[in-house]
Amino acid sequence: MSTATKSNKKAGSTRTKIHPLGDRVVVEREASEERTAGGIVLPDTAKDKPARGTIIAVGDGRLLDDGSRSKPQVKVGDKVLFTSYAPETINFQDEELLLMREEDILAIIE
User: Fold this and answer.
1) Are 18 and 92 in contact (CB under 8 A)?
2) Which fold is adopted by the domain 19-31+49-110?
3) Cα(90)–Cα(14) distance, rounded to whole angstroms?
4) How far apart are CA 104 and CA 30, in angstroms?
5) Which residues have CB under 8 Å from 13's CB, separation 6+?
6) Do the beta carbons of residue 26 and residue 18 sit within 8 Å?
7) Which tens digits make up the pLDDT trace of 39-51?
8) Over the range 98-108, which residues count as b (16 or more CB within 10 Å of their CB) and which as e?
9) Where are the domains of the chain?
10) C-alpha 76: how far from its chain's center?
């Protein structure tokens, strides 16, 4: 069970954590490419959002029929590929993060 800690930018505030429930994970998406292979600079509207990122928080695991939880296959810090339609985009402390089920992760990049 891991949680992401992002420090709040307001003076005097406490740290806020995000902890996904069940088999969900929180992913920070990789930055989009700024240039094409031919060297053309891409505006933000023309960039494809990459379907890869880094895990920053992991839930406790999927609840099984017998009441136990399955152990997550990913951990905080893993670089992953995921399906492009799966993630829910959330804004957490002025940062865009992705919330998705572990089953929507296709591979761990080593």
Assistant:
1) yes
2) 10 Kd Chaperonin, Protein Cpn10; Chain O (2.30.33)
3) 20
4) 17
5) none
6) yes
7) 666 555 544 566 8
8) bbbbbebbeee
9) 19-31+49-110
10) 10
0.90 exceeded by pTM: no
* Portion of the chain with pLDDT greater than 90, in percent: 52
Kindly report the length of the chain: 110
Give the CA-trace dihedral at 60, 64, 70, 74, to 10 degrees: -70
For tokens 């017998």, what's the residue? Answer: 66
Scanning the structure block, which residue is given the tokens 């029929």? 65
Q: Which two tokens stand for residue 98?
A: 């992705």
Q: How far apart are the first and last CA of the chain?
A: 21
